[in-house]
Amino acid sequence: MKKLVYLDNNATCMTSPSVRDAMMPYFNEFYGNPSSMHIFGEPAAKALKKAREQVAALLNAKPSEIIFTSCGSESNNHALRGFLESYPKKNHIISTVVEHPAVLQTLKFLEKNKGCTLTLLPVDQNGNISLEKLKEAVTTNTGLITIMSANNETGVIYPIREIAEFAAEKGILFHTDAVQAVGKIPIDLQKTPVSMLSLSGHKLHTPKGIGALYIREGVKIHPFIIGGHQESGRRAGTENIPYIVALGQACQEAGQELKDGSLQKISALRNKLEQALVKQISNTKINGNVPNRLPNTTNLAFEFVEGEAILLKLSELGIAGSTGSACASGSLDPSHVLTAMKLPYSFIHGSLRLSLSKFTTEEEIDYAIEHIPSVIQSLREMSPFYTLPK
Ligand SMILES: *Cc1c(COP(=O)(O)O)cnc(C)c1O
């Protein structure tokens, strides 16, 4: 029987019912503006304060260090563009070739239009960066290092603590795009001297359109959105209280799940899926540093097939996955992340990312294991490059 199996949680997640329940009263009951000095403003202001405490608690930060934004992309833009406006003379920025477009494209814009210079660190075949190369890249002009906490395509986790300590030692600011890492691996900003950190709600089971930026006390960054005095003058615009409440609730739940074994359950299902596919499908490779990945992500490369073709066939069966490739002007460009990892040519187009959540069930994983091998086999039978096993 056909099922619907959502294995694309790194793209977005379902809003969890408990998060939805927490936010609902703030649409029709407590709809006031938190800045208002009357009885309608009060519950909204209280909710805003509580949510800020919940987000801060997940990161072991101070509530005053958290500002709410509209999404992870805005948080990244705020950090990078705010940095360059605040420190125009310290205009060398170090990053990596595998960042999310919200970082990579912003950096390229700043390089082209705002006079910053850029060093993008390469990655090795497992998607890792070299700390030695990072250290060598630093110049007297280096003002910012921005490196993601974990990669959205491969799940590879970066050594954020070492990088933060190195940057702090050198007096360089360090921003990390932690959108994929928050809630999936522990983050302790008391122990890790990160200057700025971006997160997004919809990768944590809130609705799409809410994010946060952590700015360490003492780090002065120009605001990205200028206007009213909201968020202590750091981000203008009347606060989206229902979604902020959702983010607070989601962060509180994520904090519990980091302790209660939920993530071990997710990684056990991920491992079951991955091992079954590698075993049943010949010429298959796992992309990324296998021992050091997010618990929910697997990125597989199948030799002699096209990722887009796999997605379409799987979608017919009700299974949702993703590939990093973008269909550009009729040619299929493989993902910038897998390209940077220099995958063998015959593998590079045939990648499939499957990402789980706390709502993924064992039945769903079994359904995926039952169907994916025959999809790959049927596509290979159509490929001119594939020789059928005798
Ligand atoms: C999803 C994602 C973003 C963008 O977040 P939005 O809230 O969708 O703007 C940024 N960085 C990474 C690593 C992501 O996975």
Description:
With 390 residues, this protein is α/β, with parallel strands linked by helices. It has two domains: 55-237, Aspartate Aminotransferase, domain 2; 261-380, Aspartate Aminotransferase, domain 1 (Alpha-Beta Complex). Helices cover 39% and strands 15% of the residues. The chain has helices at residues 17-23, 25-28, 41-59, 72-86, 101-113, 131-137, 160-170, 241-259, 262-280, 307-316, 336-340, 345-348, 362-382; strands at 5-6, 66-69, 92-96, 117-121, 142-146, 173-177, 196-200, 211-215, 284-286, 297-302, 319-320, 326-328, 331-333, 351-355. The strands form four sheets. It has a seven-stranded mixed β-sheet with strand order 2-8-7-6-5-3-4, sandwiched between helices. A three-stranded antiparallel β-sheet has the order 9-10-14. Strands 1-11 form a two-stranded parallel sheet. Strand 3 (92-96), helix 5 and strand 4 (117-121) form a beta-alpha-beta unit. Helix 10 packs across helix 13 (362-382). It starts with a strand and ends in an 8-residue tail after the last helix. The structure holds pyridoxal-5'-phosphate.
